[in-house]
């Protein structure tokens, strides 16, 4: 029996990932308009509040807007060859429906991308990441309105034309399936009393599918040598027991997520949606050309986030409490430990996810988010001993190697987030992910000083050895 080689391919993309709204701050500088993120004081599940009477952590972030050169230098020191970030839609089109873009916003990203490229770091850019112009919500109803396809397509084309010589990896929507779980964050949706929420969410998703496909079309035309992908929040689903009812429940919960990539990667609505839509009184309005658009302009690769798996049962009332894994559902897995926020730790689940998605789609995969949120302690001498983060990442990277040996085409890995940032789920700073500590607390106090954690040096060695040295 011959030994199977387990190694990362040459040219593998190593880096980190952030979102503009979670790091930049400067929320009204440079001509920027208000975004949906700017009116969420407590994270993506908090009620929409534009009174501006609360403390809004996203307004200041970690001041990446002014400090990006310092941060990019630290990323380069770790050896990043790619860096995933997003463009803040509201820096380019402050209200979303303007005909001409904001030059000051475009220039900011020119400067950021130039700084990355100067240090041999490829930008990987998400066009819309948990942020959209608040004006599109107030004046059009968010993504429930088909008019947003036009606004998004204009925005995407501006980005492609402006950065065609600088950005070769794009993604259309961050975690597009989150529109079902955090509809205001994912789709700018505010529901009227008595409204069929499921119908509205799936209608909004349809408009995003068409907009995404049109962005793929434009990207291929404007930047022929670029790759453009979709992005899914993926939690592979296990059955709690071998009872057929639990196995079926796991299948249905998994389909809730892969429905989105079935359309963006395969190019059509899967057959299983017919029954689901009928039983939930969902009637999606489509134009005659939509089917052709979805079929003809499929994504080049599938980007996804992986933090944990989830476990399903047909009888949750018998299984105990939910596993507190943010907003995606499921019950506790008795075989897994969890983080301080209840997110279950399952490295083997990443290998399962990679194999499942690659078997289903046969397109390149890109892990664009994976990380461990924890309360880090800054010790005397500017030391942060985050061995728990190293353990988490090491164990997941070992499973990535296994998946590559299984035959999965994995092109890259960007950890979430390489520098401490405002948590999307809770808007906290104390839930830290980074290799770089940022001196700021939940109330916004601190110097914003950047401090290398123990994991900084570990990840630097991982990249330098192309994943050979994980210990």
From TrEMBL:
Pfam (any one) = Glyco_hydro_1
Enumerate the PROSITE patterns for this protein.
GLYCOSYL_HYDROL_F1_1, GLYCOSYL_HYDROL_F1_2
A GO MF annotation of the entry reads: beta-glucosidase activity
Query: Is ATP-binding a UniProt keyword of this protein?
Result: no
Q: Any idea which UniProt keywords this protein has? A: Glycosidase, Hydrolase
GO biological process terms, alphabetically, are:
carbohydrate catabolic process
Check the UniProt entry and state the signal peptide residues, or none.
none
Q: Where is the active site?
A: 369
Cite a GO CC annotation: cytosol
SUPFAM superfamilies membership: (Trans)glycosidases (SSF51445)
* Record-stated family: Belongs to the glycosyl hydrolase 1 family.
Q: State what protein this is by name.
A: 6-phospho-beta-glucosidase
């Amino acid at each position: 029996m011959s030994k199977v080689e387990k190694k990362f391919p040459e040219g593998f993309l190593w880096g980190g990932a952030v979102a503009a709204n979670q790091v930049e701050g400067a929320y009204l500088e440079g001509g920027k308009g208000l975004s949906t993120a700017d009116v969420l004081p407590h994270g993506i599940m908090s009620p929409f509040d534009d009174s501006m009477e609360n403390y809004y952590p996203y307004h200041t972030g970690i001041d990446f807007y002014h400090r990006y050169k310092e941060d990019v230098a630290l990323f380069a020191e770790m050896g990043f060859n790619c860096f995933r970030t997003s463009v803040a839609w509201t820096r380019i089109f402050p209200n979303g429906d303007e005909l001409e873009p904001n030059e000051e916003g475009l220039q900011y990203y020119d400067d950021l991308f130039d700084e990355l490229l100067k240090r041999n770091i490829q930008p990987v850019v998400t066009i819309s990441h948990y942020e959209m112009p608040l004006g599109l919500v107030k004046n059009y109803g968010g993504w429930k309105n088909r008019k947003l396809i036009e606004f998004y397509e204009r925005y995407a084309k501006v980005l492609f034309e402006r950065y065609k010589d600088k950005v070769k990896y794009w993604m259309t929507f961050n975690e597009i399936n989150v529109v079902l779980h955090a509809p205001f964050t994912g789709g700018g949706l505010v529901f009227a009393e008595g409204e069929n929420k499921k119908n509205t969410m799936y209608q909004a998703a349809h408009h995003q599918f068409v907009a995404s496909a049109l962005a793929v079309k434009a990207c291929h035309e404007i930047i022929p040598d670029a790759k453009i992908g979709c992005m899914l929040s993926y939690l592979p689903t296990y059955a709690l027991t071998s009872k057929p009812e639990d196995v079926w429940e796991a299948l249905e919960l998994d389909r809730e997520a892969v429905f989105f990539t079935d359309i963006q990667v395969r190019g059509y609505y899967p057959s299983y949606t017919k029954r689901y839509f009928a039983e939930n009184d969902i009637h999606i309005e489509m134009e005659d050309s939509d089917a052709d658009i979805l079929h003809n302009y499929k994504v080049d690769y599938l980007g996804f986030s992986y933090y944990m798996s989830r476990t399903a049962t047909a009888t949750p009332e018998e299984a105990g409490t939910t596993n507190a894994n943010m907003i995606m559902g499921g019950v506790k897995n008795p075989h897994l430990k969890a983080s301080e926020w209840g997110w279950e730790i399952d490295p083997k689940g990443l290998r399962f996810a990679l194999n499942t998605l690659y078997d289903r789609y046969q397109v390149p995969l890109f892990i664009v988010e994976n990380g461990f949120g924890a309360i880090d302690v800054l010790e005397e001498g500017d030391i942060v001993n985050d061995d728990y983060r190293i353990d988490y990442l090491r164990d997941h990277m070992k499973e990535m190697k296994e998946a590559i040996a299984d035959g999965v085409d994995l092109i890259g890995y960007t950890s979430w987030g390489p520098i401490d940032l405002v948590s999307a789920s809770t808007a906290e700073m104390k839930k830290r992910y980074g290799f770089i500590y940022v001196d700021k607390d939940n109330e916004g106090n601190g110097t914003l000083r950047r401090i290398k954690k123990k994991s900084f040096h570990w990840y630097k060695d991982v990249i330098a050895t192309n994943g050979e040295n994980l210990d």
